[in-house]
Amino acid sequence: MSAESGLKTFRDAGGLWEGHDVMEVASPEGWYRDPELVLDFYNKRRRQLQEVEPNAGHRLLAGLEDRFHVDVITQNVDDLHERAGSSKVLHLHGELLKVRSSLDETRVRTWMQDLNLGDLCELGSQLRPHIVWFGEAVPMLEPAIELTAMADRIIIIGTSMQVYPAASLIHYAKPGIPLFFIDPNPNIRATDFENLTVIRDTAVNGMKKLVELIEE
Predict the structure, then answer these.
(1) Domain that holds residue 199
(2) Number of domains in the chain
């Protein structure tokens, strides 16, 4: 969803994220091995995020709130949905503009500047990025399942459907509801799920086509 705003995703680069093996910068093992590298990586991503803007796909999705109750469940860690105007955004994998205690994951605070070694929480432990790394629990999974199970329509945009447990959410949808899958290289087919429409396109162009479908 955010690629067209200039933010890279690791799935498009053979397991690399901005030139780094994701396990170096997105795992507890990487954090314990080289926290300075991890902090530097997320500092650069945080700075980059503040230089980009929501794209038309973000804005079209936010615009659906004029006619529908829309809940956004995102694997992205940026704030572009919020900046585009979406009012209900659930971040499955954390948020780049927040940090948390290394000792108590409930101690979360907004953080816009660089995070460095020596920046401590109230408990005296090192602050870390508020990101769900590989191998860690996904605290927002249950709320995401509840939202998915209540939905009357589901739109899936720009995901590989390979990262679990996020990819399992579609299986909690109510039987028979309309499903839409937008991706330039979709790896699921219209016959894989009941009532699924596949739109083979980018997030921006796909959202334009989807809005036209809804308006019909």
Answers:
(1) 3-103+136-215
(2) 1
